[in-house]
Design a protein that fits this description.
This is ERF superfamily protein. Pfam families: ERF. The protein has seven helices and seven strands; from the N terminus they run H-E-E-H-E-E-E-H-H-H-E-E-H-H. By secondary structure, the protein is an alpha+beta fold. It folds into two domains: 144 residues, Enolase-like, domain 1 (2-Layer Sandwich); 39 residues, no CATH class. Helix 1 crosses helix 2, helix 2 packs across helix 3 and helix 2 runs parallel beside helix 5. It starts with a helix and ends with a helix. It binds zinc ion. Zinc ion binds next to helix 7.
Length: 194
């Protein structure tokens, strides 16, 4: 655990403060978007050759009535994040829980995004200068900014075995097939082809 612990300290140092770039149009205050958090975390993880595996689990789904009388969907999602050091093979795991509310079909996605964001914020002890309660509410009540959606699609990952950078396509295929991000070469090795 010594090698990965040292790398995590580096990640924490690099992410010790994440600037707020999002604005809540209704309440007029700034908050750290999920894109802000994930962008910074991912840059730091890739630099340290740490690869991340995220496993979401839906804990609860329900319909709620808003103050205006509209029915919205609410979802609570638990995510487990495992960070694997591509150099030493050591790993650490931590979890996060998030809630999302949406009139359409995006409640689970919002909950998942919030859960990932808070898992990193808490486990890496990152400050965004926010009142946590105000921030949670923001996540629940506003839709995810376009920047966030793109970011989540294009989160940079490295291969768990050799540490090279992966494209989104390769990462997704590998996650589906092997449950962790691997490059084409390491996937072939697993299949016994190479
Ligand atoms: Zn590889």
């Amino acid at each position: 655990m010594q090698k990965i612990a040292k790398k995590l300290v580096q990640v924490m140092q690099e992410c010790s403060y994440i600037q707020k770039t999002g604005t809540n149009d209704f309440h007029h205050y700034r908050y750290a978007t999920s894109a802000d958090v994930l962008e910074k975390i991912n840059m730091a993880l890739v630099k340290q050759k740490l690869c991340s595996v995220v496993l979401p689990e839906i804990l609860q789904q329900a319909d709620v009535t808003t103050a205006k009388g509209n029915i919205e969907h609410m979802a609570t999602v638990k995510i487990d994040i495992m960070l694997i050091d591509a150099e030493s093979g050591e790993s650490v795991s931590f979890s996060g829980i998030g809630t999302g509310q949406d009139s359409g079909d995006k409640a689970v996605m919002k909950a998942q995004t919030a859960a990932i964001k808070y898992a990193y914020l808490l486990s890496m002890a990152i400050s965004t200068g926010d009142d946590p309660e105000a921030d949670t509410k923001t996540d629940q009540m506003t839709s995810i900014p376009v920047k966030d959606k793109q970011q989540i699609q294009s989160v940079q990952t490295i291969c768990c075995e050799c540490g090279i950078k992966l494209t989104t396509g390769v990462r997704n295929v590998s996650l589906n097939k092997y449950g962790r991000p691997l490059c084409m070469k390491c996937q072939k090795k697993l299949q016994g082809v190479a």
